[in-house]
């Protein structure tokens, strides 16, 4: 696999990755952060996979059913054609809840002729730890891990089970199916029933996507990114994952490999702001419930991240028996960064709370709880904003006075004042305004570097950092302010390489960064657009879109030389920033068309 050429399928309970050739190479059941059933992406020999195999005469192509999460892999040799339609069931039930079981359906659709294929079914439960044994039973194929942890999965199929397990050729004369289930089924699945699951799931996604506005430009990219963000949301708690994978490296052969199957307050809040702007209220409501539930005590500080079921301890261990993606070790499960202090999360959370209060003020639940949360966050920021932290990029060693963290402390107080206006709390407005002005003065005095002519990474630093580009989008400074324009130019000079951006170029805990962080390039494009360099911004945007995989999906990083995708996949950060950029271009286009109409 050269370029993370995978599609994601899911049902807001878990997710799986299917390669462009139709191999299921990553899947965790029953939930996103469960141990893997298939992990070939992390070890080609010990990880396990579930592949559909055809002869070299077959051409293989892959696409999504438009505006859905149904992934279609087509195999054709001229006279013989069939498709594999991969999905995880999700649809509304009559009682108002969702049907979203921990299972994957591979619906085999007969198109033409008598195509022949075989199957390699090789589950390796519990990340491949211990021995997984597979047995053919009367109604299903059962796989059991009796190692340190007991685990099972069940495969149901309309095809001959012995032929499936032995990898013998299967001639397709009519539609068939494979159903991989974490639970044993009470009723025997049939092809007819699997087709019904397919159609119901398709209708669910079409209805969901229909809520997203249509845009004149980049509409397909916006829709695909929106569906991808939805696939990274966890219905049960409202959490939103940073990505669906663990330990896909930022750089091949290095140790920057992390588990991203958790809910970062920063990433999730940014996602919620974008997705709710697209009209998807329920994602925002569930996430705010998630936040409210996490903070029972008024003085309890927020962690930077939580487990998807609100776990507060995310102990990090390494799986030393796995070789890692293309030999990049270690493979990690859990994430020690949950212990870090990052002061920016308060501003990002306050920003999303304020946005929801404005957007849904007539029907937003938890108003009193959100006001209590607002006051608690102000108290924490007031007490701690002068302290150094680990910053947005999670430096694991020294704490610094990062500019982005300080700006987001200002955002926390600025949005709190705006929320106080909504709730007509005049005394709070007066008291908090003085604090807001104090933080703002401090940033202008200490983050601006006269020699560099830019706001730099941290107080007293000469290093540039892409995160300072967000000063404008959070309202700290106007886009046409000479200081911001100069900062954008300095970021380009120091961090841009052939239109792709480094996060920063100074050494961190693991040496010098060597890949481009995708969201930073989107931030830079947005900043160019805002300062008036719209044509160049559009050119860079189109160039960046060309680096996505064959399905329009992005990971966390891009290699500067080869332009291959790197890092965990698909990455919520990358897709939310893609949507923001695309919407800006579309709005600009809409405004120009209105002006042209008025002039004519």
Automatic annotation (TrEMBL):
Gene Ontology MF: a single term: hydrolase activity, hydrolyzing O-glycosyl compounds
Pfam families: Glyco_hydro_15 (PF00723), TREH_N (PF19291)
Listed GO biological process terms: carbohydrate metabolic process
Gene3D superfamilies to which the protein is assigned, alphabetical: 1.50.10.10
Domain Trehalase-like N-terminal positions: 8-128
Domain GH15-like: 218-582
InterPro entries: 6-hairpin_glycosidase_sf, 6hp_glycosidase-like_sf, GH15-like, Trehalase-like_N
Superkingdom, natural source: Bacteria
Protein name: Uncharacterized protein
Organism for this UniProt entry: Robiginitalea biformata (strain ATCC BAA-864 / DSM 15991 / KCTC 12146 / HTCC2501)
């Amino acid at each position: 696999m050269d370029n993370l050429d995978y599609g994601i399928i899911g049902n807001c309970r878990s997710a799986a990755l299917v390669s462009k050739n139709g191999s299921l190479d990553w899947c965790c059941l029953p939930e996103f952060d469960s141990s893997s059933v298939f992990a070939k992406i992390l070890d080609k020999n010990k990880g396990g996979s579930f592949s559909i195999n055809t002869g070299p005469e077959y051409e293989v192509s892959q696409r999504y059913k438009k505006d859905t999460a149904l992934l279609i892999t087509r195999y054709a040799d001229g006279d013989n054609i069939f498709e594999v339609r991969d999905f995880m069931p999700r649809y509304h039930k009559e009682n108002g809840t969702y049907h979203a079981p921990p299972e994957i359906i591979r619906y085999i659709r007969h198109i033409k002729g008598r195509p022949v294929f075989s199957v390699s079914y090789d589950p390796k439960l519990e990340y491949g730890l211990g021995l997984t044994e597979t047995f053919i039973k009367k109604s299903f194929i059962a796989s059991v891990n009796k190692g340190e942890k007991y685990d099972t999965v069940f495969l149901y199929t309309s095809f001959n089970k012995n032929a499936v397990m032995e990898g013998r050729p299967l001639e397709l004369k009519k539609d068939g199916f494979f159903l991989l289930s974490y639970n044993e089924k009470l009723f025997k699945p049939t092809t007819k029933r699997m087709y019904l699951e397919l159609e119901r799931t398709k209708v669910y996604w079409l209805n969901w996507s229909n809520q997203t506005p249509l845009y004149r430009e980049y509409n397909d990219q916006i829709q695909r990114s929106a569906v991808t963000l939805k696939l990274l949301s966890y219905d049960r708690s409202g959490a939103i994952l940073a990505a669906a994978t663990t330990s896909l490296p930022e750089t091949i052969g290095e140790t920057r490999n992390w588990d991203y199957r958790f809910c970062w307050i920063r990433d999730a809040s940014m996602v919620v702001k974008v997705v709710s702007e697209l009209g998807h209220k329920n994602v925002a409501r569930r996430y705010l419930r998630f936040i409210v539930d996490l903070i029972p005590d008024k003085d309890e500080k927020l962690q930077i991240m939580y487990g998807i079921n609100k776990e507060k301890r995310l102990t990090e261990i390494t799986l030393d028996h796995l070789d890692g993606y293309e030999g990049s070790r270690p493979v990690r499960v859990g994430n020690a960064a949950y212990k870090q202090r990052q002061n920016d999360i308060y501003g990002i959370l306050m920003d999303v709370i304020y946005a929801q209060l404005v957007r849904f003020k007539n029907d937003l639940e938890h108003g009193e709880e959100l006001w209590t949360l607002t006051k608690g966050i102000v108290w924490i920021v007031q007490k701690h904003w002068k302290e150094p932290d680990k910053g947005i990029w999670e430096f694991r060693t020294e704490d610094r006075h990062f500019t982005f963290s300080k700006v987001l402390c200002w955002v926390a107080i600025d949005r709190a004042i705006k929320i106080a206006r909504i709730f007509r709390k005049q005394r709070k407005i007066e008291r908090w305004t003085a604090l807001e002005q104090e933080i703002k003065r401090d940033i202008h005095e200490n983050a601006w570097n006269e020699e560099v002519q830019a706001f730099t990474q941290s107080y007293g630093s000469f290093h540039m950092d892409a995160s300072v580009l967000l000063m404008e989008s959070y309202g700290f400074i106007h886009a046409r302010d000479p200081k911001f324009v100069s900062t954008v130019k300095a970021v380009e000079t120091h961090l841009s390489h052939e239109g792709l951006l480094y996060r920063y170029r100074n050494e961190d805990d693991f040496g010098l960064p060597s890949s481009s962080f995708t969201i930073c390039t989107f931030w830079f494009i947005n900043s160019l657009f805002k300062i008036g360099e719209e044509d160049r911004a559009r050119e860079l945007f189109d160039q960046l879109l060309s680096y996505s995989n064959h399905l329009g999906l992005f990971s966390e990083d891009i290699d500067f030389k080869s332009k291959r995708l790197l890092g965990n996949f698909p990455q919520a950060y990358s897709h939310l920033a893609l949507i923001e950029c695309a919407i800006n271009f579309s709005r600009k286009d809409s405004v120009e068309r209105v002006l042209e109409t008025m002039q004519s």
